[in-house]
Amino acid sequence: MGQASETFQAKSAIKAADLEHRRKIRFNIGKYDAVVPIGKQQFLDVELVRRKAKVTKWKAIESLDVHLEEFERHLLKRGGKVIWAENAEDAQAAIGEICRKHDCKTVVKSKSMVTEEIHLNDYLQGIGIESVETDLGEYIQQLDGEAPYHIVTPAMHKSKEDVARLFAEKLNTPPNLTPEELTQVARVNLRAKYTAAEVGVTGANFIIADTGGIAVTENEGNARLSCAWPKVHIVVVGIEKVIPSIDDLALFWPLLATYGTGQKVTVYNTIISGPRQPGETDGPQEMYVILLDNGRTNILANPTSRESLYCIRCGACLNACPVYKNIGGHAYGTTYSGPIGSVITPHLREMDEWKHLSYASSLCGNCTDVCAVKINLHELLLENRHEAVQQGASSFGERMAWKIWKTASLNRSLMNAGNYRIKNWMMKNLFTAWSNHRPGLTFPAKTFNQQWKARQSGR
Question: How do residues 112-124 score in pLDDT, each as one tens digit?
Fold first, then answer.
């Protein structure tokens, strides 16, 4: 068992038994569950919309190289610069070089999971640059020294009382502020950072191939300030975020909003196609787009798992997953949690070290049912398990246990043998994970098969 697996099991055991944590998560996810069906009403045929979105992403991923090069050509024409980063270290180095070139002391940063993936804040802090999260949820998490808990809602696991206590501790505010008052405190603090920052960093929800633009979706306006106020705008985005045409946004923007937060469309939707142009009065003087691979081509090379690259990061699968709702986002120990994280992380990192995430699932299929672009997530979790075994990422004991189970399951007489003594001994001494947290399981003296036969013969 690897270190990541041991950590996952330890954190999961703690969170699964934390009833207060479970109450907060179910309360907050319940808010989304109540409004997502309302958002879906804007579509005449929501299933048709989902299928169309999946086909559009299929086309984009199948011709990924063509679309990315098309995007680069168009952005270069408008004065933007494109940097191709093979891994996190390449992306960090590129950002560090840009910051040094512009004598940067402060970076303002909008919500971006891909910058979490490359640990950008830690890197910038290490080279003496202040990096400030400007999304309210991310700002809360940064104050608390925690990673985002959820793809869409970084501080989902915190109540308003938790946030009030945090602000009182870190910002010396009164401990009983309302959510509105807390928001105003954050707003005042962040306004000063926008005006001081030399560099703004954002992610991108979509890369638009036919115009050379990036599309950013948000509800607070902080991303617009992060990319428009500083002299330099850096975009860090995964290569899978490409869509063929600007016309596709009419499909993806409402779909992302509805499945992410239940809105018809998010409050701020911005297309950025380069730095400030001649005759324009605002915007950055320079714009860089860092196209990050960091293991995505590993997924692209796999004909089955490639489907996971269609993900638009709406977070719906997290909200639907019974495992996620019980153990929380931090237990996963990786940037992307929940079902989609369990699917892609073993490919983005190492299968042997992270295969355990693919087993952290009930395989109920709820994640697939709610996916905005109809990714077969539960089937991809099974595919990961299969690949792990094929690659030899399973122990001798594990392989033998399944071989014995398969042999016994296919043989009725073996299943009936020793039903009371052998099976109960095994449950008590070998399979202890269940009984550690629940009452023990006890097998009856006779199996159902044996009881049925006895009943039939007695008639």
Answer: 999 999 999 999 9
Q: Hey, what CATH topology would domain 42-294 get?
A: Rossmann fold (3.40.50)
Contacts of residue 174, Cβ cutoff 8 Å, sequence gap at least 6: 168
Q: Which residue has the tokens 């990036």?
A: 214
Strand order of the sheet with strand 199-202? 81-85, 286-292, 232-238, 199-202, 106-109, 130-133
Reduce the secondary structure of 150-189 to three states and give it as a string: CCCCCCCCCCHHHHHHHHHHHHCCCCCCCHHHHHHHHHHH
**Residue 175 near residue 343 (C-beta atoms within 8 A):** no
Taking alpha carbons only, the member of 333, 345, 347 closest to residue 147 is 333
pLDDT of residue 409: 82
Closest by CA position to 283, among listed 197, 224, 371: 224
* 359-345-216 Cα angle (round to 5): 130
Residue 96: half-sphere exposure toward Cβ, Cα within 13 Å = 17
Longest CA–CA separation in the chain, Å:
95
**Span 151-176, mean pLDDT?**
95
Q: Are 120 and 130 in contact (CB under 8 A)?
A: no
For the chain, the structural domain boundaries read 42-294, 407-457
Give Rg (Cα) of the chain: 25
Ramachandran region of residue 274, left (φ > 0), alpha (ψ -120 to 50) or beta?
A: left
pLDDT score, position 436: 75
Average pLDDT estimate for 16-27: 93
Q: Lowest-pLDDT range, 58-62, 165-169, 195-199, 448-452?
A: 448-452
**Confidence band for 446, pLDDT divided at 50, 70 and 90:** confident
